[in-house]
Amino acid sequence: MNDTDHAGGTGDTGDPADSGISGTGDTPGTAAGTGTHRPRDRRTTAGTNGTAGGAGTAGTAGTVSRSGTAGRTGVRESCAPESGGPESGGPESGGPVVIVTGGSRGLGRETTLRLAAQGCDLAVCGRDAASLEAVAEEVRARYGRTLHTTRLDVLDESALAAFVRESAARFGRVDGLVTVAGGARGADLRGTEASDWDLTCRLNVTHPAIALREAADHLAGTGGSAVLVSSVSGWKPAPPAQYAAAKAAQIHMAASLARELGPRGVRVNCVSPGSMLIEGKGWARLRDEDPRAYREFEKEFPGGRLVDPRDVAEVIAFLLSDGARAVNGANIPVDSGQNAPSAYGY
User: What is the number of structural domains in the chain?
Assistant: First the structure.
C-alpha cells in the first residue's frame, strides 16, 4: 500500500477520480464524466482526505467535557512521526485530550484543528509522516496545544491498540475519541473479491471498534465520548456495496456500543458526512476537469454546493462537548440535504 493515511469514512462518496482504498469515504468504481457506473482497476493503495485550508477557528460547539475524576499527568510535546516518548522542553498538557485516527488530512485535519482551537490536546495517527508533521506544526503555531503524533496503519490492529494505550499513558486521560480513518477497496460486485470485503470491513468497522475498546476505560473515567465518522453511503445506498455495507454497519455498531457503554457514562455517536469538496481530491478535480458534470452533481444538494469539511468538524466537536450530553447512539447526517451519494445516481 502507498504510504498515506487511511483517512476515509468521511462521506465524500462517489469520488470519480479515486478508486481502490479511498481516503475520502468515496465510492470507487465510477468513471468521471460518463454518467454511468462501470468497474475500474482494482488498487491496493490507501487514499487520503486531502486538505482544506483556513479552518479550525470558528464555531460555538463548546468545549470537550472534562467532568470526570481521572488524574492527569504532564506530558511534553511530541511531533516525531514514530516517536517512542515525549520530547524534552515541550509544554505540559492543560486541556481535554482527544485521540483522532486519520487526523492529519482532509476532514481529519480539520477536526484536529477545530479541537485544538477550542483548547484540546490531541493524539493523532496517520500513515504519512509529512502530513503528521505539518498538522503538528500548525497546531503548535496557531493554538499552542500539545499534539502527539504516531505514524501507523489502522489495519495493523496491534499498532492501533498500542497507539491508543500509549496516548492515554502520555496524557494521563482521554476525554474523546474520533475515528476518521476508513475507506474501501474493490469495484463493482463482479470485480470484487472476498479480500476486498474483508479489508473494507476492517477499515470501517474493526478499526473503530478496536480504538474504542482500548479507549473505553479512559473515557469512562472522564465522562468522555466517541464519534465514529461514517458516510452518507451508510444510509443512502450507492455502489460499491462493500463500502455502503461497512458504513451501515458502523452506524449500527455505534448505536449498539452506546447502549453497552452508556451505563459507564460513555457516549458513542456517528457522523455521516455527505460528499465533501476537498482541494486535491476527486470532486475538486471533477470541478476543474469537467465543470459541466460538476454543476450537474451540485444539483443533488438543495443549497447548490457540496459539503465543507469544516462544517463536519464543527458537528464532531459539538458531539464531543457537554452541550451534546443528551445525544447518544445517534447518527448525525452532515450532508447538506444531499440526494444521491454519487454523481452517477444509484
Answer: 1
Burial 304-342 (b: 16+ CB within 10 A, else e): eebbbbbbbbbbbbbbbbeebeeebbbbbbbbbebebbb
Burial class of residue 133, CB neighbours in 10 A (0-12, 13-18, 19+): middle
| Of the candidates 346, 338, 343, 322, the residue with the CA atom closest to the CA atom of residue 63 | 322
Reported as a single tens digit per residue, the pLDDT across 307-345 is 999 999 999 999 999 999 999 999 999 999 998 777 765
**CA-based nearest residue to 120, from 316, 312, 307:** 316
The answer as to whether 225 is a domain residue is yes
Those residues whose C-beta lies under 8 Å from the C-beta of residue 194, and which sit 6 or more positions away, are: none
The Cα–Cα gap between 321 and 18 comes to: 34
C-alpha cell at 70: 481521572
Whether 50 is covered by a domain: the verdict is no
- Domain CATH for 192: 3.40.50.720
In a domain, 112, yes or no: yes
Cα dihedral 250, 256, 262, 266, rounded to 10, equals -20
Place of cell 465518522: 229
State the Cα–Cα distance between residues 276 and 281, nearest whole angstrom: 9
Between CA 24 and CA 280 the distance in angstroms is 11
- Domain annotation covers residue 245: yes
pTM, rounded to two decimals: 0.80
Identify the helix (H) or strand (E) that includes residue 176.
strand 176-179
What 3-state class would DSSP assign to 203? helix
Tell me the per-residue pLDDT of 54-81, one tens digit each, with 9 for 90 and over. 333 333 445 575 544 333 322 233 333 3
Triad 57, 59, 63: Cα angle to 5°: 90
Could you tell me if residue 326 is left (phi over 0), alpha (psi between -120 and 50 degrees) or otherwise beta?
Answer: alpha
Q: Which of 273, 250, 246, 266 is nearest to 328 (CA)?
A: 266
